[in-house]
Amino acid sequence: AAMRYLPYFCRGEVVKGFGRGSKELGIPTANFSEQVVESFPSDLSSGVYCGWACVGNGDVHKMVLSIGWNPFYKNIKKSVETHIIHTFKDDFYGEILSIVITGYIRSEKNFSSSEALISAIQEDIEEAKRQLDLPEHLKLKEDNFFHLPEGKTVSH
């Protein structure tokens, strides 16, 4: 049931997660609030996806998204974590994150160690970069969804 929902458009506020992505893994992720996570289709397959992400009215960047229960951390709640393939100077908690999920990379799996998890995420990032350069993914980067209606402009 992964592909049936794609592309999937979603927007929500960035909230503080478990603080694990950046601190333990060196891979910062943005977490959506529970309300946003609960709005995802319940039968959207857990796993790793790729797509486009935009913070506030900033630029649109490639991203990798994980949907699931994070078996490595034995979560009981579903989480949706977005790793934007871009280096930001500051945290953006409280900002609006807009994402379009365009492709499916792999199913969720458990890892024996955080090293194994990190190397899998690095592979996911490389795969995301490859997929997102394909025309059918690339065209969604320009989607009007990324232009927030308030008409606020951000100086580049």
UniProtKB/TrEMBL annotation:
One of its GO terms (biological process) is FMN biosynthetic process. GO terms for cellular component: mitochondrion. One of its GO terms (molecular function) is ATP binding. Residues 3-133 form the Riboflavin kinase domain. Catalyzes the phosphorylation of riboflavin (vitamin B2) to form flavin-mononucleotide (FMN), hence rate-limiting enzyme in the synthesis of FAD. Essential for TNF-induced reactive oxygen species (ROS) production. Through its interaction with both TNFRSF1A and CYBA, physically and functionally couples TNFRSF1A to NADPH oxidase. TNF-activation of RFK may enhance the incorporation of FAD in NADPH oxidase, a critical step for the assembly and activation of NADPH oxidase. It holds the Pfam family Flavokinase. The keyword Transmembrane helix does not apply. It comes from the Eukaryota. SMART domains: Flavokinase. Its cofactor is Zn(2+). This is Riboflavin kinase. The lineage of its organism: Eukaryota, Metazoa, Chordata, Craniata, Vertebrata. Its EC number is 2.7.1.26. It catalyses: riboflavin + ATP = FMN + ADP + H(+). Keywords: ATP-binding, Flavoprotein, FMN, Kinase, Metal-binding, Nucleotide-binding, Transferase, Zinc. SUPFAM superfamilies: Riboflavin kinase-like. Pathway: Cofactor biosynthesis; FMN biosynthesis; FMN from riboflavin (ATP route): step 1/1.
